[in-house]
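Form 7-S
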Amino acid sequence: MSRLSIFPERSDAARPLSPLPLLVSNDPAIIRSELDRRGIRFDQWPKPLHLSPGAGDAEILAAYGTAITRLQRESGCRIVDTMRITPEHPEREERRKQFLAEHCHHNDEVRFFVEGQGLFCFHIDQEVLLTLCEHGDLISIPAGTRHWFDMGPRPAFCVLRFFRDNEGWVPHYTGDPIAARFPGLD
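Output:
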């Protein structure tokens, strides 16, 4: 079940543990509303009945074809691909380390969870929003939004990634160690 936890940001190095959350909700309407207020799109797509677990790229793209086309028209994202990371993925530790460092992008980051789960964390103004995304969840993060992503120590997910151009996923790291102060996906 998707979940949103909103925390106050604490930049006080003397308090290394995360503060108590201001809000925790599993209600998709509340998640959508709270993220929308901060410029982040959250949506849930219907799950296709004919998609098998561990489906290949072509099967995934065909199963979600109508939704993909609609999102491409709405967002201007011309390129879509799949990314699957499993506990056996040879680069899982390196990728987790990359994703866990706070960063932003020059383009929107748009992801749809085909399988599994991941924790998107947003650092906006004086808040940190932890958003657990699961199968069926779409999230669109505006360019310039400071964030990090935790796929957990034993990742098992597949996402559709949407890009405006061939540049792909290019992080611009902030150098802020804030991610270490908040709960992750364990």
